[in-house]
Amino acid sequence: MEERKTFDQIKVGDVACFSKTITESDIYLFAGITGDLNPVHVNVEFARKTIFGRQVAHGMLTAGLISAVIGMKLPGPGAVYLGQTLKFCLPVFPGDTITAEVEVIEKIAAKNRLRLRTTCFNQEGKAVVEGEALVMVGKEVY
Length: 142
Known about the structure:
This protein is α+β, with helices and mostly antiparallel strands and 142 residues long. It has a single domain (7-136), classed as Hotdog Thioesterase (Thiol Ester Dehydrase, Chain A), CATH 3.10.129. It has helices at 24-34, 39-42, 44-48, 59-72, and strands at residues 15-21, 80-88, 97-108, 113-121, 127-136. Strand 3 (97-108) and strand 4 form a beta hairpin. It is elongated, with a radius of gyration of 16 Å. The protein starts with 14 loop residues before the first strand and ends in a 6-residue tail after the last strand. 27% of the residues are buried. It holds the Pfam family MaoC_dehydratas.
């Protein structure tokens, strides 16, 4: 587990990342957990007939990688996720390696909050998800 950072240890411009290759199993597991059985995600034959031409990962599966960065790296364990905006820029396919990147763009000292730029990139360096998050961080390590 990553070391937890306090609000005072975090600086504007700090960046952290997490990478994962998305598999068909990830897609089916996410579908089962969430109940989102849209055939573009879980039916390969159906997906072949769509504008994507093949199976596509759920957008929220990809966006979930941002949560891994926030919860485990920046700010890390104990962070409280307060909000997130998302824009889905490109589809993610099985076999794509996605890197979720979080960058501190503002510190709100009065409330121990951070505003974060959140971006997921594919293996070609293209943004597949973009957004901003608001998180609360403790002043002390507990």
